[in-house]
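Box S1 | Example of a co-folding query
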Amino acid sequence: MENHNPDCIFCRIVKGEIPAEVIYRNDHVLAFRDIAPAAPSHALIIPQEHIASLSELEERHRDIAASLMLAAGTVADILGIRESGYRFVFNSGADAMQSVFHIHGHLLGGRQMGWPPFPGEAVLHG
Ligand code: 5GP
Ligand code: ZN
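Box S1 (continued) | Returned holo structure for guanosine-5'-monophosphate
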């Protein structure tokens, strides 16, 4: 596989070396359930190629980036949350608390959510 990182937990899931509850797979992406769900429905959608974060995405990854976005609706459909609604979140870097450095979109749904990320706090620099 192109650009596989043997030390990356999500690359190992792509290769089947670590078990995961796979929901969907196509040529570019893999979707599986998050091991510690933060919502009633919580899937991770990842590129099969190792790319550390959104900040590492390059022009040559255009097809992969499109596939990640297009997979969101498909996976939401499989999870039964396409109509009720969902959030598709990419944490990138320290301030966003990214903990696994292989791009992953969190697909979250199954109940009403809140917004914005800092409820009740004034945004000092808008
Ligand atoms: P981050 O904090 O980087 O945005 O999200 C990483 C996510 O990966 C977390 O929600 C965490 O629960 C999930 N995760 C970490 N290790 C594993 C694993 O081995 N299997 C699965 N299915 N999810 C994992
Ligand atoms: Zn990886």
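The chain has one domain: 9-109. The mean pLDDT is 95.
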